[in-house]
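quick one, two chains, predict together pls
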Amino acid sequence: MTRRDQREKHERDEQGRERELVERSQRGDRDAFNRLVEYYQAGAYALALRMVGDADAAADITQDAFFSAYRAIGSFRGSSFRAWLFRIVSNGCYDHFRAQARRPAVSLEAALEEDGDGDAYGHGSDWHMPKSLIDPTWDPERATLRGETIQRIEAAMQKLPPEQRLALILSDIQGLSYDEIARVMDTSLGTVKSRIARARAHMRGILLRQGEHFG
Amino acid sequence: MSRHPNDWEQQRERLSAYLDGELPPEERAALERHLPGCPECRRELEDYRTLRAMLRAVPMPALPRSFTLPATGAVPEPLPAQRNRPASARPRTRAERSSVARAAQALGGLVAVAGLLLFLTSALFGAPSGTASTAAGNYSSSYQPAIGPKSTDIAQSTHTGGPVGPGVATARPNEQHTPTGVAASPTIGTSTSKEPGRSETAPPLPIIGGGMLLGGAALFVAGTVARKRRD
């Protein structure tokens, strides 16, 4: 068996195991559901945390999402439990934003701002994002980042409009395909492609401006 | 001078999708033919590649705790993020609608228990001073906001509708009705000691208690039926 065949077989086996756990959950087997929780909770929590930027809120959103998923698992029909679960998590994040927007300092429009690339550098200029500007010690081969760089990336993420932020997190942090992202965000492939592209341009603009700030 | 003066937005999308392996074969081939002659596009692609590599290198946050469900017992329903949802919010889920039914159950149960206690106390020990009725009055109006002004009417009618003397009516302004829901429990007993005139009157406490018991039970049953229907 080639390596690729092995990988594909492994994926099929995983999918089969997951399908069985889902079916058992749908029959009320809470242990089976908890196996799903154990498998997906790290990803679900990471998604919530990167979206809302607050550990306590992210924990609440994650817990609520698993409660909701358990109560609603009878109606799960699709092929990707992950996409379904992440949809519940992201809905929880949007609820959180709406609740925050109710506070006088933040308007709903500002919280849900869709446009705005922040791409101050455009194209065709000499400006681009040298790795050294972000982190002089960063070695893509080793792929570890300094704590300060991580903080700057996380802070820059918080500046993105929620739709762009979600698309970028699902793509670059969670590793979902565009197809799966479209299912999570309940939108078209074209919109997913557009949001990811704009998110990347936007992030680059933010990081470059910060880099300039720090000299 | 840019090679893409008019379609940079689309070109950026193509480059981004190309990086993710999400371009259809023909577009991928066209882009790969284009790249060697376009430093602008190559630079953009390289920036996206760097950014993606950095995002992938951000470590997964540590789990603050396990999110597994408790082994037994009802799974609590998630709380809505806010009580008053805007019109543009997504539709209420079944879980959110049934929280109203659950509130009715809880309220009904509390009122029924309070009524039962009042009934038993007054029946066994005879009608005490107005303190118990005041407590009941505060209690009932505090715990029945969900059924609207009617609750206050019930409380009022138990004082003024039955065979009560004028002492109750005059004492009413001193009572502290705070229809703010369960959190109002501290009001129980707060106003009672300040109404010396009330001990002279003897409102029919067993009737009040019985009424609360029946009303609370009815509310509880309504909530239970509503929940059963939705599950």
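The mean pLDDT of chain B is 68.
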